[in-house]
C-alpha cells in the first residue's frame, strides 16, 4: 500500500485528489495539508511514502516544505511529487534542487496522477518532457559558464557514465537497455551503482548532477 500525503492550499483540490487516490486498491491517503508548514508537521507523524506537493502556497511554499521534509531523519525512502503549472517555470529547478522526485502538470488527467504516484513510489523519477525542457532552460539561465565536474564522477566506470548521460536525457531503463543492447536487469544494476557512488536518491537528482557537472550540456551532446 502506497501511503500518500496531499499538500495544496485549495480544499476542493485536496478533496478531489484524495477521492481519486483512495479509490485505488494500492494507494491510501494518510493526510492532507493546506500549506507547507502543516505538511512538514503531518509528514513527520503520518510517515507517507509519497507527498503530492503544490509549489505555490501561502506561508511556507512547496519548495521549502520539500527541503524540510526530506531533510528529516528517516526520510530516505520518502518521495515528493511536485504539482506545477506552465507559469511556474522558475520554481522547477529549485524544487529539483530541494529533492523532488517528479513533476506533474496540474492539467494532467486522473490517470496521470495515479500513475505518477506509483512511479515515484517505486523510486523512479517523473519528469514530463515539458518540465524537463524548462529545467534545462532554467539551468542554462543560472549557470552561464561551464561548471567543473565533481570528483565523484571519476569513480564511475565508462558504462556507468554512459548510463548516467542517458538517464539525464530522459530515457527509461528499458530505453537505455535497448540503446546499449543489454538487458534491463543490467541497466538497473548500473543505475543502482551510479546512485550509490554519487550519493543520489533517484533519477531526478541524477539529471541535476549531470547538468550541474557539465557531463551533459543543454542543447548539446556529452562534452569531451
Automatic annotation (TrEMBL):
InterPro entries: CheY-like_superfamily, NreC/VraR/RcsB-like_REC, Sig_transdc_resp-reg_C-effctor, Sig_transdc_resp-reg_receiver, Tscrpt_reg_LuxR_C, WalR-like. The keyword Transport does not apply. Residues 3-121 form the Response regulatory domain. It comes from the Bacteria. Gene3D superfamilies: 3.40.50.2300. Pfam families: GerE (PF00196), Response_reg (PF00072). Keywords: DNA-binding, Phosphoprotein, Transcription, Transcription regulation. The modification 4-aspartylphosphate is found at residue 54. Residues 149-214 form the HTH luxR-type domain. This is Response regulator transcription factor. It comes from Actinomadura alba.
Amino acid at each position: 500500500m502506497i501511503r500518500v500525503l496531499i499538500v495544496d492550499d485549495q480544499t476542493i483540490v485536496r478533496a478531489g485528489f484524495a477521492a481519486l487516490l483512495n479509490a485505488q486498491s494500492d494507494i491510501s491517503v494518510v493526510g492532507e495539508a493546506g500549506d507547507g508548514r502543516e505538511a512538514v508537521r503531518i509528514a513527520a507523524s503520518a510517515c507517507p511514502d509519497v507527498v503530492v506537493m503544490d509549489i505555490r502556497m501561502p506561508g511556507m511554499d512547496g519548495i521549502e516544505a520539500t527541503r524540510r521534509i526530506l531533510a528529516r531523519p528517516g526520510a530516505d525512502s520518502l518521495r515528493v511529487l511536485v504539482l506545477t503549472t506552465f507559469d511556474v517555470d522558475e520554481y522547477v529547478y529549485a524544487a529539483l534542487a530541494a529533492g523532488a522526485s517528479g513533476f506533474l502538470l496540474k492539467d494532467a488527467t486522473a490517470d496521470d496522477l495515479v500513475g505518477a504516484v506509483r512511479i515515484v513510489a517505486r523510486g523512479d523519477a517523473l519528469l514530463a518532457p515539458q518540465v524537463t525542457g524548462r529545467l534545462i532552460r532554467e539551468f542554462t539561465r543560472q549557470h552561464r559558464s561551464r561548471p567543473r565536474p565533481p570528483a565523484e564522477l571519476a569513480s564511475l566506470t565508462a558504462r556507468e557514465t554512459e548510463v548516467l548521460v542517458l538517464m539525464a536525457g530522459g530515457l527509461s531503463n528499458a530505453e537505455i537497455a535497448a540503446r546499449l543492447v543489454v538487458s534491463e536487469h543490467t541497466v538497473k544494476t548500473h543505475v543502482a551503482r551510479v546512485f550509490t557512488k554519487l550519493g543520489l536518491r533517484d533519477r531526478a537528482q541524477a539529471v541535476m548532477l549531470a547538468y550541474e557537472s557539465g557531463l551533459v550540456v543543454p542543447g548539446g551532446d556529452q562534452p569531451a
